[in-house]
Design a protein that fits this description.
The chain is of the alpha/beta class. The protein has 3 domains: 168 residues, Rossmann fold; 164 residues, TPP-binding domain (Rossmann fold), CATH 3.40.50.1220; 180 residues, 3-Layer(aba) Sandwich (Rossmann fold), CATH 3.40.50.970. The protein is built from 23 helices and 21 strands. The chain has a 6-stranded parallel β-sheet, with helices on both faces. Strand 11, helix 13 and strand 12 form a beta-alpha-beta unit. The radius of gyration is 24 Å and the shape is globular.
Length: 577
């Protein structure tokens, strides 16, 4: 269609087809309406959501689980601003999405026109890049560039804001053959001298740890990571954003580190003499009080984003480049030769892991234990299912107890901690994997923020399964109030045992509604949900109100002060080293 006369709206749809878009999550409105007319004739699937935030999170869930760029679309003003939370979430978690928004006519910009909002300005700090397109001829270039930027280097969200007059104007379609992005040259191949320096430190280390972050998932560097572990025998910890990057069943995987990390993972970082950070950013939720974090360790920090290196912790060996390439180079160097004997270090971590593990008993004071429920979902649905969570206690239990065996099978909100992520992100994951089982693990607080997307799922035959851990409260906040605010529960009691009635709410939105309150009902409702594949399912699990996530490092505290229960700290046995 090069050289064909078409409207800017038609050029937009043609451009989206050319970059390989399969699905768009969105809602039409005044300024974006011209784009919806040619979209009706396109092979691109459009899913009409019930709220723009849902469109954004659905694009994220699709992107995280497929590795493709997710796409959401909204009109100007409130339509665009409703995307902001999802855009911010994608930015924090380096998720490749492109948000397309309509804008008032170019001549009306700055006049406070109806539904005008400076969405480019609003999202400037939370996008990798953004475009304001005022002329129809610039639409193909902007779309091609947006997708290239979103998926390359450190992935992230890109905004394309298009004025209504640009969408309505007639233009001769020209698809750019060459893409010129001045100043954008992400370093892919690491410097070999830095790789050799890293190898020297690794060979000499007696207590090394591979600190694996979400960058390994973005780079799809799973096989390279597994090979390096096989060659070196170095223990591994995987952050919240890297769960599944290295299988939990592997004896050298000590779980997730951080505020609610395993004792073994936190101990590994704290007592290491070398941290090999791969695509990780030394987030405060991992490090605890920074000046007490892994004080005896040297640091190798490999990341594609040079701004992350030495931002929080000074790197002894900085490596800028794609983490997959970095791992390939390290694997080559370790194919021959040996590193130091670390068998004593591994035994020490094995001891921590065997001594401190999650309690998943079915009942807590006669009420269902959420840990037990989540563990049973993982055991029955298995490692091939895709799991999506909201944010809070259920998210932490999910990070520990689900079967994290496969890369790209776990989607959650990490950096932003966005409540309401689960239902729409699960929808996006299901659209990306229509034949797979997709389970959302949610809390009663999170679920009430975005559950309207169940209607979208019901109308579009998207059979997600949502497990709501109903503890009748904002559980994580209540836990903090219990521990740090003298059990003064200010505005965290949701009273959701009776209002709403979750199974009835689910039925009203076209889903199947189920409930479990006893241990012998848990497997039954999970199996019922797994047998339903023509519409969404919601299972309410009535769980204990005061179940707490352990271990825990209090905000601002040292990781050395980790607690395994309210008044109980683990025993760090230095002599075991």
């Amino acid at each position: 269609m090069a050289g064909s006369q078409m409207t800017g709206a038609q050029a937009l749809v043609e451009s989206l087809e050319r970059v390989g878009v399969e699905v768009i999550f969105g809602i039409p409105g005044g300024t974006i309406l011209p784009a919806y007319d040619p979209l009706m004739d396109s092979k691109i699937r459009h899913i009409l959501v019930r709220h723009e935030q849902g469109a954004g999170h659905a694009a994220e869930g699709y992107a995280v689980t497929t590795g493709k760029v997710g796409v959401c679309m909204a009109t100007s003003g409130p339509g665009a601003t409703n995307l902001v939370t999802a855009i911010s979430n994608a930015y924090m978690d380096s998720t490749p999405i492109v948000a397309i928004t309509g804008q008032v006519a170019a001549s009306a910009i700055g006049t406070d026109a109806f539904q005008e909002a400076d969405i480019r300005g609003i999202t400037f700090p939370i996008t990798k890049h953004s475009y304001l397109v005022k002329t129809a001829s610039d639409i193909p270039k902007a779309i091609k560039a947006a997708f290239e930027l979103a998926k390359t280097g450190r992935p992230g969200p890109v905004l394309v804001d298009i004025t209504k007059d640009a969408l309505n104007a007639t233009v001769e379609f020209e698809w750019p053959q060459d893409l010129v992005l001045p100043g954008y040259r992400p370093t892919v191949k690491p410097h070999l001298r830095q790789i050799r320096e890293a190898a020297k430190l690794i060979r000499a280390a007696e207590r090394p740890v591979l600190y694996v972050g979400g960058g390994v998932c973005k780079a799809k560097a799973y096989k390279q990571l597994a090979k390096l572990v096989e060659l070196t025998g170095i223990p591994v910890v995987t952050t919240l954003m890297a769960r599944g990057a290295f299988p939990d069943s592997h004896p050298l995987n000590y779980g997730m580190p951080g505020m609610h990390g395993t004792v073994a993972a936190v101990g590994a970082l704290q007592r290491a003499d070398l941290l090999i950070a791969l695509g990780a950013r030394f987030d405060d939720r991992v490090t605890g009080r920074l000046d007490s974090f892994a004080v005896g360790a040297k640091v190798i920090h490999a990341d594609i984003d040079p701004a992350e290196i030495s931002k929080n912790r000074i790197a002894d060996v900085p490596i800028v480049g794609d983490v997959g390439h970095t791992l390939n180079e390290l694997v080559d160097l370790f194919a021959e030769g040996k590193n130091a004997d670390i068998s004593g270090w591994v035994r020490y971590l094995d001891n921590l892991r065997s001594r401190y593990h999650a309690d998943t008993t079915p009942l807590e004071e006669g009420v269902l234990s959420p840990e037990y429920v989540i563990k049973r979902i993982g055991e029955l649905a298995g490692p091939d299912a895709y799991y999506v969570t909201g944010v809070g206690q259920h998210q932490m239990w999910s990070a520990h107890l689900l079967p994290h065996q496969e890369p790209g099978h776990f989607a959650t909100s990490g950096g932003a901690g966005t409540m309401g992520f689960c239902v729409p992100a699960a929808m996006g994951a299901q659209v990306g994997h229509p034949k797979a089982q997709v389970w959302g693990i949610d809390g009663d607080g999170c679920f009430q923020m975005t559950n309207q997307e169940l209607v979208t799922c019901a109308l579009n035959g998207i059979p997600i399964k949502i497990a709501v851990m109903n503890n009748q409260s904002l559980g994580m906040v209540r836990q903090w109030q219990t521990l740090f605010y003298g059990e003064r529960y200010s505005n965290t009691d949701l009273k959701s045992l009776t209002l709403p009635d979750f199974p009835k709410l689910a039925e009203a939105m076209g889903a199947v509604g189920l409930r479990a309150v006893e241990p012998d009902q848990v497997d039954e409702v999970i199996k019922q949900a797994m047998a339903i594949n023509d519409r969404p399912v919601v299972i309410e699990f009535v769980v204990h109100k005061d179940s707490m996530v352990w271990p825990m490092v209090a905000a601002g505290a040292s990781n050395d002060d980790i607690k395994i229960a309210r008044d109980l700290a683990p025993i760090w046995e230095e002599e075991d080293l």
